[in-house]
Amino acid sequence: LSTRSFNGGQQFVSPYQFHHPLVYQNNGPIEVHATTIICVRKGEDVVMCGDGQMTIGTVVAKPNGRKLRKLNNEKAVCGFAGAAADGIALVDLLEKKLSERDELRRACVETSRMWRTDKILRHLNAILIVADEKATYQLTGSGELVESDTGIMAIGSGGNFAEAAARALMDREDLSADDIAQKAMRIAGDMCIYTNHNTMKLKISKGVGIVEDTTGIQNKPE
To answer: d(Cα 200, Cα 213) in Å, to the nearest integer?
Structure first.
């Protein structure tokens, strides 16, 4: 990593960012957009959806990125927003903690603690949503671990649009968690320029585990 000055301090940047100043302007922290991830919990089902757009600066780098992962022998699901390599590294760390604990909440606590305190991990730029049949959590690099109390949680540049849409639909008895998540993703894709309509989905049913997977990922990330 190289460094550059920002507000009197030093900021870490990758070699690509350092040699492409027109894409990564030196006028503030590097902003990572490029995604919407939403998790909806209703009835016996938990549905996590994510779009496929990956953006570098103002350029769409890939339309079908895979930002959802299966964890803990397909008992839990995870989605990340932010730098792809950082998100995958954090998902791998969380999976390691789950293999040691086999308890999602405890694994999230330990992952969040390491993410904040480790001198290398603290520079990883991503946000995670993790869910199993019991609870949904959001992890950030500042040490925050938030549990959803509404059954809905969303992150990324289109996260606010998706969550607002899902909340408005949550009281509709004729709509399942799957329906709500899909409609929320369509609205986010319509409103957020960093989100497309190439939606991928992981679905958990209580007592069964993952029952639907449209990510195309079998075991390890690409």
So the answer is: 8
Question: Would the pTM of this model clear 0.90, i.e. be above it?
Answer: no
- Please, what's the largest Cα pairwise distance for the chain? 55
Burial class of residue 104 (count of CB atoms within 10 Å of its CB; 0-12, 13-18, 19+): buried
CA atoms 208, 213, 216, 222: torsion sign: negative
Contact 81, 87 (CB under 8 A): yes
- What's the CA angle centered on 216, arms 215 and 220, to 5 degrees? 95
Taking the CA atoms of the chain, what radius of gyration do you get in angstroms?
17
- The token pair that represents 69 in the structure block: 């992962």
Helix and strand counts by DSSP (H, E) for the chain: 5, 14
Three-state secondary structure call for residue 3 = strand
List, by residue number, the catalytic residues.
35
Whether pLDDT at 174 is above 60: yes
E-strand stretches of 68-120 = 68-71, 76-82
Structure tokens at 211: 């029952």
- Reference 156, options 37, 18, 76, 50; nearest CA is 37
